[in-house]
Write a structure and sequence with these properties.
255 residues, alpha/beta, six-stranded mixed sheet, five-stranded mixed sheet, 7 helices, 24% helix, elongated
């Protein structure tokens, strides 16, 4: 909706053709008059000191501040973007989905920009790799133009929701934050069933005395399995085994 029930005002600007993040941001130019925070909608964030983003921006008086985190999973960096810094801590290169990882600094989908980003976007070429206008290419143009761009470790964790395993991992972090399992309203659980570190949506039911572990049950799902499962997504019309899609690094975070 328009956000009124949350005390907010929301304006929607549609990207009618999927041509990349820079293209989508470019469509906002006529609506923005001040520095702005860009948050990608397909990423779940566990925030850290977000106020430090704004403190850095005020200190450098413009340009961009890129939210980052120290990432020990090299594949996670390769799925996002990497940063190269000079001795003063300024970003000199941003590399989309790098093959070679130079450090443990990973860029996440949270950015603080001033209006100069729109000048950079207008000069951003379409990439050969994905045939899109990449926001990292626009940031590189900003850097090459001499504007200050710095990283800021303002995110504790982030999940790029791309695969079913990503969705499961995101939900299990929420369950961990609640201290156990998250059980929705009007949920029926059979006598003898054991539910451990799961998220179960509203109006779902577990009909047999089985063990569900580290799994996600969609709202309205009737679980009639005869045996227990671990690290599954269970929905009304399908089930997905996510046990092979979650890394050891991720497992350690919710253990």
């Amino acid at each position: 909706g328009d956000g009124s029930r949350f005390g907010a005002r929301i304006r929607y600007v549609e990207q009618t053709t999927a041509l990349g993040i820079a293209h989508a941001v470019g469509r906002l130019e006529q609506h923005i008059r001040n520095p702005f925070l860009l948050v990608l909608g397909d990423i779940f964030f566990v925030p850290g000191p977000l106020e430090s983003l704004f403190a850095l921006y005020e200190e450098q008086d413009g340009g961009a501040v890129l939210a980052t985190k120290e990432e020990h999973d090299e594949k996670a960096i390769q799925r996002n973007y990497a940063l190269v810094l000079n001795p003063d801590g300024m970003v000199t290169r941003v590399i989309e989905k790098p093959r070679h990882v130079r450090n443990r600094l990973k860029g996440v989908g949270l950015y603080l920009f001033d209006l100069t980003i729109f000048d950079a976007i207008r000069r951003t070429p379409r990439t050969a790799m994905r045939d899109e206008y990449e926001i990292t290419d626009a940031i590189q143009i900003l850097i090459d133009d001499g504007y200050p761009v710095r990283p800021c470790n303002a995110v504790v964790d982030d999940i790029n929701l791309t695969t079913p395993a990503d969705l499961l991992y995101c939900n299990l972090l929420l369950a961990k934050a609640s201290g156990g399992s998250l059980i929705g309203q009007n949920v029926e659980i059979a006598d003898g069933a054991a539910i451990s570190r799961c998220v179960i949506g509203d109006d779902a039911a577990v009909r047999n005395p089985i063990e569900l572990t580290e799994s996600l049950v969609f709202p309205g799902t009737q679980v009639r399995l005869a045996t227990g499962v671990k690290r599954f997504i269970l929905a009304p019309e399908l089930s997905v085994d996510c046990s092979q899609g979650i890394s050891q690094e991720q497992l350690g975070r919710w253990a």
